[in-house]
Amino acid sequence: MATPVEIPKQYGDAAECLHAARRNLDRIGKLLARPSAESVDAAAAILREVEVQLGCISVLWKAKHAKADPELKSVLEEIRRDVAVLAEFFSQAERLFDGWIKAIQSKRGGYNKQGQAAGLILVNQVNLEG
């Protein structure tokens, strides 16, 4: 599956980088709406490009010592909110999977969540005759 990544025509243009980052975040949202191993890998690749784009914007704005266009600032704030939501999403997903895996491992190993031996289950009657 080819990963379409929006790459700005010029990394020297903060506005172009911002708009490319916005479009890439929209792609990530669409990929994560239909989770699969391929979509998660593609989302990670796109997210790395967004990181580069946001880094370029930061460097450009610091180098120019200029005040950014208010419209661009609002796009940047929107991107910051989206990135915060993604960070929380990934954090919660990781906790969910860690807890799920630990629960499966402890149950299979005969232990409870606290690491103690699980209680025995008594069976009323067992018939070993075939």
Give the helix/strand layout.
Elements: H1 14-33, H2 37-64, H3 70-109
Helix pairs in contact: 1-2, 1-3
Task: Please provide a written account of the structure.
It is a single chain. The protein is mainly α and 130 residues long. It has one domain. The chain contains 3 helices and no strands. It is elongated and about 85 Å long. The mean pLDDT is 78.
Summarize the structure.
This protein is mainly α and 130 residues long. The protein is built from 3 helices and no strands.
In percent, how much strand structure appears in the residues?
A: under 5%
Number of strands: 0
Number of domains: 1
Give the CA-CA distance, first to last residue: 54 Å
List low-confidence stretches.
Answer: none
Shape: elongated
CA gyration radius, whole angstroms: 24 Å
The largest β sheet comes out as: none
The averaged pLDDT comes out at 78
Helix content: 55-70%
Q: SSE order, as H and E?
A: HHH
- Summing up helix and strand content along with how strands pair, one would put the structural category as mainly alpha
Structure annotation, total helices: 3
Task: Please name the defining characteristics of this protein.
single chain; 130 residues; mainly alpha; 3 helices; 68% helix
